[in-house]
Automatic annotation (TrEMBL), chain A:
Residue spans crossing the bilayer: 6-25, 37-55, 67-97
Pfam families (UniProt xref): AzlD (PF05437)
Keyword match Transmembrane helix: yes
Matches recorded under InterPro entries: Brnchd-chn_aa_trnsp_AzlD
Tagged with keyword Transmembrane: yes
Name the UniProt record assigns to this protein: Branched-subunit amino acid transport protein AzlD
Organism: Streptomyces umbrinus
Keyword vocabulary terms for this entry: Membrane, Transmembrane, Transmembrane helix
């Protein structure tokens, strides 16, 4: 039951914030400052998420095979590889490093 | 096939959108496996992908539940991660210019990937195509692969051994890369990384990412101060928006 409560709250909350973003009146968004902020916020959030998912294990910072995987993804991006290849590079290198280091 | 206002050909937009939609959609498999491995039932796992449909929040929720968190803190962490979608919606509502009646239906697709694809498009027509194709492909595939992952969780064993846990950050990095072109965008990204990692050990799950989001207003504010100090006439620096 607890799990269903968590799922219900998350589903309602996450849908609500998605909808709020779309419904905010356009007039509010014509200010240049708001526009620049709306463009920069995804940059900040994605950067923080990338770093956390790579270097965090719960509340602890770790340096493991995922870092090598992410580096491979970065190289693939610099080489202008397609999206699927970027992700595949990260997964394969991570699995490879883990296989080698046990 | 070229759109009437001289933008990029429709086929190219569809190809880009499919690339993102398919790649990220397939990573629903990793979520299905992780969720089933965290003790959620098949129905619960699939409900999350159908109803929540924002990967980071879903991963955060099952992680918190597996770690023994109570349903309210677990949901709060997942919700905080989902708050960023409100900012994506702000941006998308300008670019998509959807009729109000359509918005409640489009809302479920307002996520990192659809935003990134839509933002990369030069015209309204291509923004709409990019958003719709990415949203549809991603929603269908994400839910299908969630189901397959949950069903196959026992057979797979340890997902980490397969490197599947690296798919999430690689996806975020690929979405981020085209957004960081100017010095200002790089500074924001760098500061967000420092805040996100630095606060991780001390704040509850999900909160450091929200604090890291403050890098955007902070850098904007600092930039405003700098411009005010040196005066607008002498400022020929190109920091700022390209879009």
């Amino acid at each position: 039951m607890n799990i269903w409560i968590a799922i219900g709250l998350t589903a309602v909350g996450c849908y609500a914030v998605k909808l709020i973003g779309l419904l905010i009146p356009a007039g509010l968004l014509e200010r240049p400052l708001v526009q620049r902020l709306a463009a920069l916020l995804p940059v900040a959030l994605l950067a923080a998420l990338t770093a956390q998912q790579t270097f965090a294990d719960g509340h602890v910072l770790v340096l493991d095979a995922k870092a090598a995987g992410l580096a491979a993804a970065g190289v693939a991006l610099l080489l202008r590889a397609p999206f699927l290849l970027v992700v595949a590079a990260a997964v394969l290198v991570t699995a490879g490093v883990r296989a080698m280091t046990g | 096939m070229r759109s009437e206002d001289g933008g990029k050909p429709d086929a190219a937009v569809v190809r880009d959108a499919l690339g993102v939609g398919v790649a990220v959609g397939l990573s629903g498999f990793a979520f299905g496996v992780t969720s089933a491995g965290s003790g959620l039932t098949l129905l619960q796992t699939c409900a999350l992908s159908l109803l929540v449909f924002t990967g980071a929040s879903q991963f955060a929720l099952v992680g918190a539940l597996a770690g023994g968190g109570n349903p309210f803190t677990a949901a709060a962490g997942a919700f905080f991660l989902g708050v960023r979608n409100a900012f994506y919606g702000l941006r998308l509502s300008q670019l998509l210019a959807l009729p109000r009646a359509v918005r409640p239906f489009a809302a479920q697709w307002v996520i990192d990937e659809t935003t990134a694809v839509a933002l990369a498009q030069p015209t309204r027509r291509s923004v709409r195509i990019g958003f719709t194709v990415t949203g549809l492909t991603l929603y269908v595939l994400w839910n299908l692969t969630t189901l397959l992952g949950a069903l196959g969780a026992d057979a797979i064993g340890d997902t980490d051994a397969w490197g599947l846990d690296a798919a999430g950050p690689a996806v975020f990095l690929a979405l981020l890369a085209p957004m960081i072109k100017t010095t200002m965008e790089r500074v924001v990204a760098g500061l967000a990384v420092v805040l996100g990692l630095g606060l991780l050990p001390v704040l509850p799950a999900g909160v450091p990412v929200l604090v890291a989001a403050l890098a955007a207003p902070a850098v904007l504010w600092a930039e405003g101060r700098r411009r005010a100090r040196i005066g607008p006439d002498e400022d020929d620096d190109t920091v700022g928006e390209e879009r």
